[in-house]
């Protein structure tokens, strides 16, 4: 596997903006064979995506700091931790996952002021910070976060459940988010990401709606030819 300097917050800042970025969601790996799957995907991953869930903000639990620390030792690629947790624990969880090796922490806009404090903490601790929106939350909820984040992620499915189809709301919401980023003067500085419902037929639609990264679950882990899959993904144009 490749070694430094591919990982780290600087690797987040250096992600290419002229092609679609492939985030690989480790929730969709074979969880009993994580090391084997990491070795297989590592040459193709632009950014690892790790879903953290507290079974309160979400239906169930997902990932924890010791596991992320172990994963961070097995890859040279940067790690994006998506914190799906209640507001009262978001700051402490931000600290713990950065200590474990996260390069980018995204918190939910629904966490409100606590989410904003977590974003500031992530940056103080030397990581990049992002904001995520549940599918049912008005897109305008990202506005207070825009001056302080480098990633905006929109969920295209209900939170915390794999294997769902993309909502019809996903593409219009990406277009709305980009307009808000432009209005805030941050369009060039913020990466717009689509998470959930990522399928062969939905990726071109999301790309055309302005997504700059997509979070691949089964589309990546179920594909025997990742070289071909990533060549296809990297070649998709914004204007379809
Ligand atoms: O967060 C999510 C889904 O909301 C992803 O991180 C999952 O990994 C997606 O898995 P698939 O449904 O694409 O198989």
TrEMBL record:
GO terms for biological process, alphabetical: carbohydrate metabolic process
SUPFAM superfamilies membership: Ribulose-phoshate binding barrel
Molecular function GO labels: metal ion binding; racemase and epimerase activity, acting on carbohydrates and derivatives
Keywords of the record: Isomerase, Metal-binding
Database matches in InterPro entries: Aldolase_TIM, Ribul_P_3_epim-like, RibuloseP-bd_barrel
Protein name: Ribulose-phosphate 3-epimerase
Organism the protein comes from: Mesorhizobium amorphae CCNWGS0123
